[in-house]
């Protein structure tokens, strides 16, 4: 059996790994000159920055991605975050533990879960958090911004509940030693030793559909036949490649979510731990991490790499960046800092190809064509959702 | 001359690969023409094909 994979992001590479393991003859097509998509490192001014992600796995060693890598025998060292999270609130910094949330708010939250279960009441997270105390409300906002890059207004409460459940199941985040690229490198080694063919600078121009079955991929004037096609480029772009009108229409209103990442160099640590610091006193920045606490090699010696994330609220990027920079000053306080890079993510190089809560899953109208990756990750968060989606597709074959 | 089109989302990969430090990114990439030697590395690395060569 031959499988063609479009796109070499972490979803495409992971899918290729499992397919090779199942005995498929796999070929991967990547349009860019590098593999790893938005989940790999860029070396810049001595820092290991990234093409997208924040050198963090939402569920660390126990999460779906780490489990999938272990299943393939890929060895990546992941440092689980301790503490999982702190919060900067009212000028103070403290660890986020259940006891920090007023009992009344916890009861209200549980009551809302019960209401949803019993009466199927559908409300946005904002409607629910509106009724909570100021800390819980601000925390909800920061949490959504950091992990989903959305505002509470834009996410249905049940979706939030499922994320809450998966955090309780898989626990908090972890930082891969070597950053995102160590995972990509691990996957690439696995693929190479399993004779998977990978070509870069090789954009796919079309997918041939005959009798409702995807049969071939067009690249550089060449047609390549496959028994199975996996796309890692999201539904809208996949639909475009098939040219199928009804598929194109079906996925045309899927919206991506954007965000801004600021990579900052500091001498004195800002967090001093390997977890996330949710920022509640800010206008835009939702949280920061300090990955050099787990792996000092991600920055030049004597420096820490701090990365902020903020969801895109308006379409005015310059304005959003200005608010982010103001927030940054507040977060960093008296310390000296140097901005290494400001990267914005939206449209076709977004934070999430599909806004959290609106995902339509891995299937397409064609039974041997699947979409994996960030554009089809169900209810999972970031790369964890990607790993869950890939596993789901592989199990279905 | 290289020009950045409307498609640019500011992902900044062009500025990271530019050897002449001829690209500034603030929301969108901006090419500093007096520093640019038109090596076209940025074109190769742009995920969105947003940088084009135009005649002067």
Question: Characteristics of this structure?
Answer:
A: 397 residues, alpha/beta, seven-stranded mixed sheet, 33% helix, B: alpha+beta, Alpha-Beta Plaits, two-stranded antiparallel sheet, 2 helices
Architecture blueprint of SSEs:
The complex is a heterodimer of chains A (397) and B (56).
Chain A: E1 2-6, H1 10-21, E2 25-29, E3 41-44, E4 47-50, H2 64-71, E5 78-80, E6 85-89, E7 92-95, H3 103-119, H4 125-129, H5 134-147, H6 157-170, E8 174-176, H7 180-193, E9 197-199, E10 204-210, E11 213-219, E12 222-225, E13 228-231, H8 235-242, H9 245-251, E14 259-266, E15 276-279, E16 287-290, E17 304-311, H10 317-332, E18 337-345, E19 369-371, H11 382-396
Parallel strand pairs in A: 1-2, 1-13, 2-9, 6-15, 13-19
Antiparallel strand pairs in A: 3-4, 5-8, 6-7, 10-11, 11-12, 14-17, 14-18, 15-16, 16-17
Helix pairs in contact in A: 1-7, 1-11, 2-11, 8-9
Chain B: E1 2-4, H1 13-17, E2 23-26, E3 28-31, H2 41-45, E4 51-53
Antiparallel strand pairs in B: 1-4, 2-3
Describe this entry's structure for a reader:
The complex is a heterodimer of chains A (about 400) and B (about 55). By secondary structure, chain A is an alpha/beta fold. In chain A, the strands form 5 sheets. A 7-stranded mixed β-sheet of chain A has the order 7-6-15-16-17-14-18, sandwiched between helices. A 5-stranded parallel β-sheet of chain A has the order 9-2-1-13-19, with helices on one face. Helix content of chain A is about 35%, strand content about 25%. In chain A, α1 (about 10-20) packs parallel to α7, α1 runs parallel beside α11 (about 380-395) and α8 (about 235-240) packs antiparallel against α9 (about 245-250). The mean pLDDT of chain A is about 95. With about 55 residues, chain B is of the alpha+beta class. Helix content of chain B is about 20%, strand content about 25%. A two-stranded antiparallel ribbon of chain B has the order 1-4. In chain B, a hairpin with a 1-residue loop joins β2 (about 25) and β3. The mean pLDDT of chain B is about 95. Chains A and B meet through α10 and β18 of A and α1 of B.
């Amino acid at each position: 059996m031959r499988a063609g994979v479009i796109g070499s992001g972490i979803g495409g590479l992971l899918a290729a790994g499992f397919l090779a393991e199942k005995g498929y003859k796999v070929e991967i097509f990547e349009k860019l000159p590098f593999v790893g998509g938005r989940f790999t490192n860029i070396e810049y001014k001595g820092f290991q920055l990234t093409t997208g992600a924040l050198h963090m796995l939402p569920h660390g060693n126990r999460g779906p991605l780490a489990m999938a890598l272990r299943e393939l025998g890929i060895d990546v060292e992941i440092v689980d975050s301790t503490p999982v999270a702190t919060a900067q609130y009212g000028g103070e910094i403290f660890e986020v533990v259940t006891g920090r949330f007023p009992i009344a708010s916890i009861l209200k939250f549980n009551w809302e879960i019960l209401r949803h279960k019993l009466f199927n009441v559908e409300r946005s997270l904002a409607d629910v958090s509106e009724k909570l105390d100021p800390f819980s409300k601000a925390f909800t906002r920061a949490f959504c911004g950091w992990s989903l890059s959305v505002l509470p207004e834009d996410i249905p409460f049940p979706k939030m509940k499922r994320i809450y459940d998966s955090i309780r199941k898989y626990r908090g985040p972890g930082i891969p030693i070597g950053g995102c690229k160590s995972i990509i490198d691990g996957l690439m080694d696995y693929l190479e030793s399993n004779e998977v063919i990978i070509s870069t600078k090789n954009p796919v121009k079309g997918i041939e559909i005959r009798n409702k079955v995807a049969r071939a991929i067009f690249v550089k004037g060449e047609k390549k036949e496959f028994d199975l096609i996996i796309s890692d480029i999201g539904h809208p772009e996949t639909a475009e490649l098939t040219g199928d009108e009804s598929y194109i229409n079906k996925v045309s209103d899927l919206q991506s979510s954007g965000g801004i990442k600021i990579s900052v160099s500091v001498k004195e640590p800002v967090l001093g731990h390997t977890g996330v610091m949710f920022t509640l006193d800010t206008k835009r920045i939702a949280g920061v991490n300090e990955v050099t606490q787990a792996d000092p090699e991600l920055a030049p010696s004597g420096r820490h790499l701090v990365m902020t994330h903020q969801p895109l609220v308006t379409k005015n990027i310059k304005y959003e960046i200005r608010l982010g920079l103001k927030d940054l000053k507040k977060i960093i306080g008296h310390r000296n800092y140097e901005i290494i890079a400001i990267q914005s993510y939206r449209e076709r190089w977004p934070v999430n190809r599909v806004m959290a809560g609106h995902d339509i899953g891995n299937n397409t109208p064609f039974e041997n064509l699947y979409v994996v990756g960030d554009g089809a990750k169900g209810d999972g968060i970031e790369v964890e959702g990607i790993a869950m989606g890939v596993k789901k597709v592989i199990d279905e074959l | 001359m290289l020009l950045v089109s409307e498609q640019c989302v500011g992902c900044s990969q062009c500025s990271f690969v530019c050897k002449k430090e001829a690209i500034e990114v603030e929301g969108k990439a901006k090419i500093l023409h007096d520093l640019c030697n038109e090596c076209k590395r940025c074109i190769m690395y742009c995920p969105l094909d947003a940088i084009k060569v135009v005649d002067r």
